[in-house]
Recover the amino acids of this structure.
């Protein structure tokens, strides 16, 4: 048998296994015609609250909206500073800028690629109002330290958990908490390729704070609590019923999906740990890793040449992310210049993410591993 074509993310294989449940859920929505704000959305909201052990889940149109609504709910003022890592997906800083707040970017840790606690400490000014840590590639940022800093300086913490749903963080008192459920607010995305993905756009906000939850629910619904009475400026951001139906079918599989990503990551780790040209992902001490991405640092070989040679062998590989926020054209700012965040800049030049999804088989893994080692050892 010929090996199945390797994808960065293989949603077709995943769907084939859950087709019956997914199709039945979608069919129910269509025959009910409750496409918006139907019972499926409420059902998913409760299913996810239960799964995560969080008091409130607020479904949204996508993860970027979730972040925006979260920041809108905090009542920040123009010029207030929000600290975020410079090595991340653009959405994190985008919403800060859109709201007229000032993004203050900081460097990340070389091994975990997550926001650096020391860098956060150095970036705090009297104008700092919030920290938005990103749980990059699927492991939690050092949340215990971040929450301590936030408490000391009276700052809000909004977790960007778009890549890390189902990652678990263990606090020093033994409490184990899901990604997105530690700060004042957590945000996630159900973009199809995320660890819990729907079949279109989707997102959600998590919070244990009922007051913030009520506020964010209203903001996501045109700032409306009593119908056609608008108490605040809001947006229109909804998870639609068909997406909720897909998520209801997939949520029961999330633990198993996480386990299969972790299994693939162990194969990669084992295969590359002694390759002197490559550094395997470093682990955050108190977090599990759900491997949204499996991201290598290519240190003794040309990253771009490796990517090209893998492509020739039918193996996709991606660069997440080639340009840190402070060097993006749209975010050019007199406060920052090249060289200011050396770790992020070095990562942007050497990271390479390998195929990672829930249905990588042994034959595919063997082929990827052999190819990477063969190319880099030459
Ligand atoms: C995917 C992602 C987002 C945005 O989610 P969308 O649903 O695409 O809007 C935000 N932050 C991070 C870190 C992401 O990976």
């Amino acid at each position: 048998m010929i090996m199945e074509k390797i994808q960065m993310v293989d949603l077709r294989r995943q769907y084939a296994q859950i087709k019956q449940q997914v199709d039945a859920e979608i069919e129910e929505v269509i025959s009910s015609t409750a496409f918006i704000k139907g019972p499926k959305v409420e059902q998913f909201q409760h299913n996810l609250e239960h799964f995560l052990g969080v008091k409130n889940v607020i479904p949204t149109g996508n993860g970027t909206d979730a972040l925006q609504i979260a920041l809108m709910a905090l009542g920040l003022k123009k010029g207030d500073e929000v600290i975020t890592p410079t090595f991340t997906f653009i959405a994190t800083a985008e919403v800060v800028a859109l709201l007229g707040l000032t993004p203050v970017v900081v460097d990340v840790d070389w091994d975990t690629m997550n926001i650096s606690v020391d860098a956060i400490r150095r970036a705090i000014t009297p104008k700092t109002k919030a920290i938005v840590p990103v749980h990059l590639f699927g492991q939690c940022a050092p949340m215990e330290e971040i929450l301590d800093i936030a408490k000391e300086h009276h700052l809000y913490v909004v977790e960007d958990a778009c890549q890390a749903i189902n990652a678990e963080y263990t606090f020093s008192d033994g409490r184990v908490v899901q990604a997105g459920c530690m700060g004042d607010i957590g945000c996630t995305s159900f973009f199809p390729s995320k660890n819990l993905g729907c079949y279109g756009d989707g997102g959600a906000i998590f919070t244990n704070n009922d007051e913030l939850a009520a506020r964010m629910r209203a903001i996501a619904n045109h700032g409306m609590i009593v119908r056609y009475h608008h108490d605040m400026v809001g947006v229109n951001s909804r998870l639609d019923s068909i997406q909720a139906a897909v998520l209801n079918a997939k949520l029961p599989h999330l633990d198993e999906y996480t386990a299969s990503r972790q299994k693939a990551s162990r194969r990669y780790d084992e295969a590359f740990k002694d390759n002197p040209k490559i550094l395997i992902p470093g682990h955050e001490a108190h977090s599990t890793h759900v491997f949204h991405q499996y991201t290598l640092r290519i240190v003794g070989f040309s990253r771009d040449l490796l990517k090209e040679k893998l492509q020739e062998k039918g193996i996709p590989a991606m660069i997440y992310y080639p340009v840190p926020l402070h060097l993006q054209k749209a975010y050019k700012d007199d406060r920052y210049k090249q060289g200011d965040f050396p770790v992020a800049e070095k990562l942007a030049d050497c990271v390479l993410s390998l195929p990672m999804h829930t249905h990588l088989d042994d034959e595919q893994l063997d082929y990827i591993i052999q190819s990477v080692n063969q190319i880099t050892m030459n």
